[in-house]
Specification:
By secondary structure, this protein is an alpha+beta fold. It folds into two domains: 64 residues, Transcription elongation factor, GreA/GreB, N-terminal domain (Helix Hairpins, Orthogonal Bundle), CATH 1.10.287.180; 79 residues, Transcription elongation factor, GreA/GreB, C-terminal domain (Chitinase A, domain 3, Roll). It is 40% helix and 21% strand.
Length: 157
């Protein structure tokens, strides 16, 4: 996981514990004040939300406890590895696109962050500048040529 991914998860955890949990406790108290709990939809919704908040908090705690943080800026080389920013050219159209290979919990294709478990990332790992990779998609086989491999400092959004 990159430092950006750890920071984002810690922020989410802090928000869940300091904002969502207290608001949920208040929602449960308000719903209880309405009387009969067996037919109280507000109460059941608040309890369901409480379950989600606690479950997600435990999940994030577990992810952070097991995370190995790797700062791409400390890496170098010509091979594509975790943390690399790879510029690719579509061999059919010539269009270029860049992706940073990040941890599974950080992937966001719209932001140019490709999860390491994604098929394209798996195809790129271990390759070098100039190599061509083929990827089967729902629309057929696509080929990309690796134009450049860089290890850039983490950009915090």
């Amino acid at each position: 996981m990159t430092p950006r991914g750890v920071k984002k998860l810690r922020e989410e955890l802090k928000h869940l514990r300091e904002v969502e949990r207290p608001k949920n406790v208040q929602d449960i108290e308000v719903a209880r004040a309405h009387g009969d709990l067996s037919e109280n939809a507000e109460f059941h919704a608040a309890k369901e939300r409480q379950s989600f908040i606690e479950g997600r908090s435990r999940e994030i705690d577990s992810i952070l406890a097991q995370a190995e943080v790797i700062d791409p800026a400390t890496l170098s080389g010509s091979r594509v590895v975790f943390g690399a920013t790879v510029r690719l050219a579509d061999t059919d159209s010539g269009d270029e696109i860049s992706y940073s290979i990040v941890g599974d919990y950080e992937g966001d294709i719209k932001e140019g962050r490709l999860a390491i478990s994604a098929p394209l990332a798996r195809a790129l790992i271990g390759r070098e500048k100039g190599d061509t990779v083929s990827l089967r998609t729902g629309k057929g086989t696509r080929e990309y040529q690796i134009v450049d491999v860089q290890f850039l400092p983490v950009q915090y959004a």
